[in-house]
């Protein structure tokens, strides 16, 4: 385990060092050694510091605890949709929230923030656009998609790295919501985060920083590295005034979603076992993870 973690940390260090040659805003690494050099702390301007030790290091539930990558690598992008621009979203980054000041954002409406999961991406996710269309059909909402597209590229394709990066994206989302509240007077109780897989855990990190956040919906919150850990490491019912969760793939051994009741209300369609979707490695490689694909439509029905 120590060898695996040391190797992953070496890859992280090498990658960040290469990024430092390309950007003057690259991460400032501090406190390089803790506990015999195993635990690290990284600090990013405007986002704070992130420690890799307990509770984020948790054996056997979190064998590897990596530092999150800098925002220059994660490359988070937001897409704002409203009824006035259903198909032509305003694209902006965490560094230029001010673009919203000249947008169609409606401070009196609900704001739905949708966050995709691991190895996913906004433009590759038909479900996200279906969900956006459904929200706008029903109500004159603000819909913001959170895209962190480098999740399918090295080094973020390494699952423990994407897990770590959730912490940075969570702070970015919290900063966005704070901006909406301070500049537009948006009511935190009318902010609704909807996250799939790691996106649900990102929603939890954002909610932890925002007292009185209205609602978080978790669509199969990621299970690996988030089971049997402290509440501040995962989505839980303290992260918003109302947390609802759909569990469609929750097996503790083979499931990709959590098998824990982490919300105020937890839905377990068919007891968490979906007909026609046997979870085998061969089936996953051939057809993808079918329960995940179905869950979005279950959410729309609810």
TrEMBL record:
The keyword Nucleotide-binding does not apply. GO terms for molecular function: lipase activity. One of its GO terms (cellular component) is extracellular space. It holds the Pfam family Lipase. Its main location: secreted. The keyword Secreted applies. Residues 1-20 form the signal peptide. Residues 41-289 form the Lipase domain. Keywords: Secreted, Signal. It is found in: Secreted. GO terms for biological process: lipid catabolic process. InterPro entries: AB_hydrolase_fold, Lipase, TAG_lipase. Belongs to the AB hydrolase superfamily. Lipase family. This is Pancreatic lipase-related protein 2.
